[in-house]
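pasting for the record
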Amino acid sequence: MKISIITACFNSASTIRDTIDSVLAQDYDDIEYFIIDGGSTDNTLSIVNEYKARISKIVSEKDDGIYYALNNGIALATGEVIAFLHADDIFAHGKVISSVMNWFDHHKCDAVYGDLQYVDRVDATRIIRNWKSGIYHPGQFLKGWMPPHPAFFMKKSCYTRHGVFNTTFRTAADYELMLRMIHLHKVPVAYLPQVMVKMRVGGVSNVSLKNRIKANREDKRAWIVNGLRPGMLTLIRKPLGKIGQFFG
């Protein structure tokens, strides 16, 4: 079973090499890898082109943000399963993809998710937060639960049936997509209890209190556009639930 891995990047020269190396180090054979660049003006493409013989397709063009790039990658993908590894992120070890694909083989599911570690932007061995997803139970989105999107792997057929990223969202399209897939459409999911991805701190939605407030507003709109009503405390419990990640 083939997996398509998509990396969206823009002016990512300081981190893109680590990202690519972590993909190419995977021990799973049937991988196609796409890099969707938003028209970088730094050294990103020079680094990417060093690996062009081992990358299925490189696209570089101005776009309207990361979710447009991810949708472009989905359109190109021919794998049965789709994964996203952003240019600030790395796979935690060389057996991540083989472990995920084995999980698909042994569980009746359309999506597999796992755990994630936030790491220092300079020293990726320094762990800042541990995001342990836990087993999903129906209704958990109402309690503020969500899996980490970089550690979320889903069959392309789900995107075909239920749609891709909603690009009217600037920071919460990943949350909206997983809410739509898991909570609304009840896509069967399976939890693989291992750290799959290391994410460097400093993401768009959590770099400041102001951006966190904007992200929370987008979280609310994610429910509204899907004709759903969050619980009274859903949108409060979602960020509060992350506090324990600093102590796990």
